[in-house]
Amino acid sequence: MYADENVIRIKHDVLKEVAKLAFAGELEAKRDYIALELIPGPTPRFRCCIYKEREIIRQRVRLAEGKAPGPVDDGNVIQVLSSACEDCPISSYTVTENCQNCLGKACINACKFNAIEAGRHRSHIDPSKCKECGKCAQACPYNAIAHLKRPCKHSCPVDAITYNELGLSVIDKDKCIRCGNCIHRCPFGAISSKTFIVNVIEALKSGKKVYAMAAPASEGQFGKDITTASWKKAMIEVGFTDFYDVGLGGDMTAAYEAEEWAEAYQEGKKKVTSCCPAFVNLVRLHYPELAECISTTVSPMCAVSRLIKAKEPDAVTVFIGPCIAKKSEVVDQKIEGNADYVLTYSEIRAIMKAKGVSLQPCENTDQTASTYGKRFANSGGVTAAVLQSLKETNTDIDANVYKANGVKECRKALLLLKAARLPEDFIEGMVCEGGCVGGPSAYNDALSSKKDRDALIAQADNRGIHDNLSHYDMNNISMHRD
Fold this sequence. Notes:
alpha/beta, 4-stranded parallel β-sheet
């Protein structure tokens, strides 16, 4: 992750203050004071003036409340904070001091848009005319023209980010796959996502039965001493009715997806997984002709939510994990029985801090998922679980799977499938490299998390997927998208 520590601190401070006021029932009356408390002045800390700093805080408060930062809301869970984005350089191509102000003027001759003019000491590029074609940089014999790539635009895997006439970044909702890659790449903290913090707190205060569900990627994120039992204890202290390890949902999804794969294999059809919502968005928005190939089996998050709601129809279910796109699965995909709200690790930690609760080391006793379900968060984990389920049910198919690790691999696999040149039978798509453990809102780096996760998973019971599911009543639960 490239986000600066100062950006993360400001974000977390805002989330914590919003959570504290929401619990106290004072958010409506005191939200406008948050900016004054966090930026007391009179000297600015990061920007040109305290007024811009405070405006950025106000926009962050709106995001924390689940609103767009400005008056216009396009419905996307990922939003640009205009006041923060203003500080980013506008010009994509810049003439550096290497310019010799040569007689040939190859840069000027190469530009078809009259965007370059000669200066006293060096050429000058007019950003209002520049179309970012790069011809000037290619033509310069001194390599004096640098391509200044905005981190947000450069990091977007689907070219969903452009600039408006003011030089502010604009996210195209119809292209954005909600992967969240841009959020932690912006050094100005100008891109963030709406949160469900206030919704969750209101649900906790309402007296309803509210269940926390932590992603399989949670194990190892906070160290090898923080177990699923640690999470359960902390969530109950916060006020949740109970806690579920979504690794159980991994078992549920694997069992039903195995049936779907077996049927598709016999019919000669190819399928792609539906567990990663960013991957599903990628298929639907950029390869719509392949939408029918998406597995109809619901994600582990939805599976556990349906399991809970089968017993408690009025229950509120809250998913916790490192994924921004999970918010999109709730908001955009609107799958019946899915989680009601999604929180990232930073958002649940803000709620915990507001209540004075922290994750504490606990013995690894809360084992509700098989080791295969727990490894769903790793690239290749879905494939391993589905193949294991096929093995346990003695389903004899020689399935070959393309395990697409990261968005580049995902796009490559989908292009092959689109061209009818994919040799494999199925595609496991994980937009984040390494799988969910490499998600944009991960607390720890992927390597450290994997090491600690492996240590925790090694302590789990080595039971099969179907042995584990035999402890649960699955009769009234639909595992398919409606």
